[in-house]
Amino acid sequence: MHNLSSLLVLLFLAITFLQSGYDKFTDYQGNLGWLKEHFKGTFFDGKVDFSLKIILILELIAGLLCIVGMIELVVNNGNTFAKYGAIVSCVTLVMLLFGQRVAKDYDGARTIAIYFIVAVFGLYLLE
C-alpha cells in the first residue's frame, strides 16, 4: 500500500493519455477534420495536422512514462519515470488548454483544468 496515492494518480494519467492517444491514432482523419473546423479562423488554422501529431506523440509518451513509473514505484520504490510522466502530462495539458482557449472553447478548457489539477497533484506527491 506504499505510494498508493501516487500509483492511483499515475494510473489515472496513463488511462487518460493512452486512451486519448489511441483514439487519435485509430481515428486520425476524424480527429483532424473536427480539429480543423475547431481552429478555423485562429492562428492554428493550417497548423492543425502538425499540432495533432505533436499532441499525439506527447500523449503516448506521457501515458507510457506513467505506466513505467508505476512499475518502478512498485518494484524498487523509485520515482524517476513517474516524475517524468507527471511532467510530460502537465506540459501536454497546458498545450491542450492553450489550444482550447485560442479556440474560445471555455468548457473544454475547464475540463482540461480539472485534469491539470490531478497531474500537478501527482507531481507534488512524487516530490
Automatic annotation (TrEMBL):
This is DoxX family protein. The chain crosses the membrane at residues 54-74, 81-102, 108-126. The keyword Hydrolase does not apply. Its main location: membrane. The keyword Disulfide bond does not apply. It comes from the Bacteria. Keywords: Membrane, Transmembrane, Transmembrane helix. It is found in: Membrane. It is a multi-pass membrane protein.
